[in-house]
Amino acid sequence: MVTHYLFPLRTKFFYTCMFCCLFSLFMIASLLFHAPADILIQQSPVSSSLLSGEYLVTAFAVAGIGSALCCYLLARYFSRRLSLVQRAIQQLASGKLDIDLEIDGSDELSLLASQINQLACRLSNERENMLLSVIESLINALEAKDTYTYSHSSEVADIALHIGQALHLPDDQLFQINFAAILHDIGKIGIPTPILNKPEPLTDEEWDMIKQHPVIGARIIAGIPFLSHVSDIILHHHARWDGTGYPSSLAGTDIPLGSRIIAVADSYQAMTSTRPYRESISHQEAIRQLTRNAATQFDPDIIAIFIKLYANKYGSPA
Ligand SMILES: [Fe+2]
After folding, report:
1. Model pLDDT, residue 318
2. Could you tell me if 15 and 100 lie in one domain?
3. Residue 185 Cα, ligand 1 centroid: separation in angstroms?
4. Domain HD-GYP, which positions (predicted)?
5. pTM for this entry
6. Alpha carbons 35 and 310: distance in angstroms, whole number
């Protein structure tokens, strides 16, 4: 986020002019009334000889230099603020919308800064809405292609969100996990449909193709600026706690937290729903399997939280 500081120009201009005037008066009065003692003793400070003498010339010269310095500083101040606004407009023109000009006051430059902020915000919202529409279309396309993905992603997102809330994660992290859970299998759009819907066990070659879906999904999402962290979560949602997952060998807490949460939610949802190659199992049996695989496949802390959450809903496994 780019932050520029702007101050009310009229106020600054007024105070600078006041300072210049006071500075000039001070310098003149200072040189007139603090002239060498012998002159002060011998002559009145406002006598014609002093007013027309070298002291008055010096006083005006010093006051002039002081005023010129103040004007230079004021001009530099305006120039710097204007260049900040110009840079913000250039950023807008180049498509970088993370602009936040800080506004202090109600002068013309502050108004311009406020309008730039509003424009950046509106363009950013429009771009996000457009990207979300594209993502929604991708999800619809995937659901049409893979019948078993239907409602799977939204249920995984629901479970993952509950786990994240139980972990007291901040809102921005919950947002990322929710998005990643909805999109975690989006990469399956790049896998041939007959393989996705094959009722028989997959061959090794077919499994290798399926294992590419986190990479494909991460690539699709990586191009969306405000979902860059979501891309990383998607990439590792099939990582295992012991490091034997795919596509990389990340293990333990090196695996993004969102990926570890989605791994549990995804497995639970998959086990408790019917797939082409097997029937669903009960909640209690799914919990037993998750518990058996804690510390090998899943993060044991997340399994403990999940069991606690769902024990309240369905009761503890027998
Ligand atoms: Fe997956």
Report:
1. 45
2. yes
3. 5
4. 127-318
5. 0.64
6. 90
